[in-house]
Amino acid sequence: MIRAFVFALLLLLTAPAAAQKVDAGTIVDLGELKSKYADPRKVVVWLPTGYRPNGPKYAVLYMHDGQNLFDTATSGYGKEWRIDETLDRLIREQKVRPTIVVGIWSTPKRLREYVPSKAFAHLPPAYMERVRGLYGGDPLSDGYLKFLVRELRPMIDRRFNVRTDRANTLIMGSSMGALISLYAIDEYPQIFGGAGMLSSHWPLFLPADGAKSVTEQEYEVVSSAFERYLGPALPNPATHKLYFDHGSETLDALYARYQKRVDRIVARRGYRTDRDWVSRSFPGQAHDEISWASRVEIPLGFLLPPVAGQTKRRR
Questions:
Q1: Beta strands in the chain (DSSP E)
Q2: By the 8 A CB rule, do 166 and 192 touch?
Q3: How confident is the model at residue 75 (pLDDT cuts 50, 70, 90)?
Q4: Once rounded to an integer, what is the mean pLDDT over residues 247-265?
Q5: What values do phi and psi take at 175, rounded to 5?
Q6: Residue 233: enclosing H or E segment and its boundaries?
Q7: pLDDT score for 210
Q8: Domains of the chain, CATH where assigned
Q9: Segment among 77-81, 194-198, 310-314 with least mean pLDDT
């Protein structure tokens, strides 16, 4: 089952490099970007309807698995987040601040790039070897984040009409993309002011032989590793916002008890529910882009609330 899951993930990673089409706003294709810190990858930037290169500036939302955000033709499973339609509508309705989206495509090393290296370091040696075997080697997440922060972000800031402060720089993803989003705000709290984590793949491992749950030992080992990392790493709740959620079907059926443990860590750090922190469950929703698309306006509204007077000036 594990090998089948990894193969399925690789299908997602190697979606065809066709030009993406959107139903709302426009796409700017930055092409395949090279990096000193990570493998090359395609990056696209979505601009909302009416985007202007001058005048009031836009917030920036960085999103992982960029091939799955806007167009079913480039997504790994023929399903998309519908970020263009949803975010464009929310901006028009003045439910979120004007925002551009940087879609960072994943690579065949996705699992290694998205697993938080410093949480991995808290696993016992035998479990480290299991993760290496499943993911194909040691974590590469620190290099991936250096690419985002040291190379990609300065390029976005130079080329587009965006705000560069922490409050207007957000990051979001699902599954392993959720883990790297949390890792990003932990490791670069001076850069990212908010992070959205949908269907976080806390278990790292997968059920063996078709079972519907991980073992108690696997749960304890992995939960403890995240607990030891997150306790001192979470950023200041006075200046940051965190959004978590999960469904109840397919892989999401595994996540509830992990999330409850993470929620206790977040609460101990001083985060306040529905003010600077949201953690929600969506019964009946599965681990796929259709489910994430159906609820993505919730984290968008929480992380990107309109700023008084900012949306009105754009009429």
A1: 26-33, 41-47, 59-63, 99-104, 169-174, 194-198, 241-247, 277-282
A2: yes
A3: confident
A4: 96
A5: 60, -125
A6: helix 216-233
A7: 52
A8: 2-314 (3.40.50.1820)
A9: 310-314
